[in-house]
Amino acid sequence: MDPKAVKSDLVLILDYGSQYTHLITRRIRSLSVFSLTISGTSPLKAITDLKPSVVILSGGPHSVHTDDSPSFPAGFAEWAEANGVFVLGICYGLQLIVQRLGGVVRVGEKQEYGKMEIVVEKNSGFFGSKSVGDRQVVWMSHGDEVGQLPEGFEVVAQSHQGVVAAIESPARRFYGLQYHPEVTHSPGGMETLRYFLFNVCGVSAGWKMENVMEEEIKVINSTVAPEDHVICALSGGVDSTVAATLVHKAIGDRLYCIFVDNGLLRYKEQERVMETFEKDLHLPVTCVDASEQFLSKLKGVTDPEVKRKIIGKEFICIFDAFAHELEKKLGRKPAYLVQGTLYPDVIESCPPPGSGRTHSHTIKSHHNVGGLPKDMKLKLIEPLKLLFKDEVRQLGKILNVPQGFLKRHPFPGPGLAVRVLGDVTAGNALEVLRQVDEIFIQSIKDAGLYDEIWQAFAVFLPVRSVGVQGDQRTHSHVVTLRAVTSQDGMTAEWYYFTHEFYDDVSRKICNSVRGVNRVTYDITSKPPSTIEWE
User: Largest CB tally within 10 Å, which of 260, 401, 514, 527?
Assistant: First the structure.
């Protein structure tokens, strides 16, 4: 998808490393306005080429007082003013505006972290619909504060401690919030963003999935020549299935789908997925059983990043071999490979500025982002790479992908390799994990909770514990269960089951799965952890 072709004003976010940056993107898209995030240290041309109507400077963990603190490129402020582009700085972004435009940022005498009350000083800009003296609770997270405003700016809100909370210069179209309006801890934050975008900036709401589908089909048809053939790697998940359906709608029978059983799938996954592809989606799919090939390469490997890289490389080897077979059949080798890469995959595989790297700090490599070999012969088509998971589900609904399939929980590309901690080939770890996971997921479905949960799965731990089963001492495996709620996978909260549910599923697992004598539950949110364990 070409951002320039989107039928909506673009709100471009320059990322300075805040853990909330992606939330700004999500909040703005929820208002039917297209939003993208790029590195805060991107060159000026990368910004101007996108022709944004609004640029938001995100928060971040940096201080403008350090020599290596990231900033927007030289000429940015002049370009924004000359072209009528609105600029909003949030937290660190506000401080960048103040410092770069001639004001003073000082180390705060009173640092502000967490919920704080602010008072409206002037009913304009952000607070045009408010009255002077109105109060609201917001989420602060800063140690530095504004000491002196640049010329032409004025304070429009202060915290109850007297610290500058919001500033504006309507003539220059520069605005700043010292707090985070994008988080739920700022109850009035969405109203502030909505008012700013629509009433202050005059942004239009034209971001619709129907438009995304139409534009993406145009992009696919302009990319893939009439004589070209395309391979699609189907994982059985929502992302790759929606991607395949979209490409199939664009180019028809020139799409050849392949489903690879890498030996790292869930219980009876191959049979279930292939049945869905054939009966419900009517996609042309070839199933390749490459279990032995993958597991032999993974034998003895314990490092999760190495596992991901190996899996990514083996997938490409299989796709290349599949392409070679198609070449014999068609007389022409397929030129493209379709993958269901999503925006969170791209974000998590790329790093916050200010780390001293030209590319960002990697949380973890995604096999469809960071795990692909540089000498791959097939060119990539990633029609979903600017979308979040919930947006992909909306697109799938428009494409008539069955609702039951769209509601499937996400499953990682590397499969159970990142749910068996350590060597996936050791003992019967994979078989134990499959049985435990099946019991857990079926219990969730039986309780009518599946659709309430973003993702649920079991993890095989590389430890044993002492237990008593059948009046005998056991020294058996430990498994942990994880279930989270989320909107887009970028942040997540662990799911609260009833005590009765925990008791029931634990008993079922220990009584049904030989070799397991202890079940634990993961009560960690994201952040600080990721959803998957590896």
Answer: 260
**Residues 6+ away with beta carbon under 8 Å from 474:** 466, 467, 468, 517
Residue 215 is predicted with a pLDDT of 85
In contact, 347 and 37? CB cutoff 8 Å = yes
Active-site residues, by number, are 91, 180, 182
Angstrom distance (rounded) from CA 84 to CA 365? 39
The amino acid that residue 232 corresponds to is C
Q: What pLDDT, in 10s, does the model give residues 308-339?
A: 999 988 988 898 888 889 999 999 888 898 98
**How far lies 341's CA from each of 235, 388, 423, in Å?**
12, 10, 26
Q: Which of 145, 123, 149 is nearest to 134 (CA)?
A: 123
pLDDT at 112: 63
- Backbone φ and ψ for 383, nearest 5 degrees, come out as -70, -15
133, 60 Cβ separation under 8 angstroms: no
Using DSSP, state whether 156 is helix, strand or coil. strand
Average pLDDT in the 103-107 region? 87
- Write phi, then psi, for 497 (nearest 5 degrees): -85, 165
DSSP string, 2-67: -GGG-SS-EEEEEE-S-TTHHHHHHHHHTTT-EEEEEETT--HHHHHTT--SEEEE---S--TTST
Smallest Cα–Cα separation from 19: which of 141, 103, 129? 141
Q: How many CB atoms lie within 10 A of CB 458?
A: 26
For residue 399, which of 411, 412, 387 has the smallest C-alpha distance? 387
CA distance 99 to 462: 51
Q: How far apart are CA 162 and CA 379, in angstroms?
A: 56
Average pLDDT score over residue span 446-472: 92
CA dist., res. 86 & res. 124, Å (int): 15
Beta bridge partners, 39, equal 15
Cβ atoms of 147 and 106 within 8 Å: the answer is yes
Distance CA 407, CA 393 (A): 8
Q: What is the dihedral of CA 99, 199, 21, 523, to 10 degrees?
A: 130
Mean pLDDT, rounded, for 136-156? 86
Higher-scoring residue by pLDDT: 372, 341: 341
- The Cα 485–Cα 53 span in angstroms is 33
- Residue 94 and residue 16: Cα distance in Å, rounded? 12
SS3 state at 518: strand
Determine the average pLDDT of the residues in 237-242: 90
pTM above 0.85, yes or no: no
Q: How far apart are CA 77 and CA 473, in angstroms?
A: 71
Cβ neighbours, 10 Å, residue 98: 26
- Cα distance between residue 70 and residue 439, in whole Å: 49
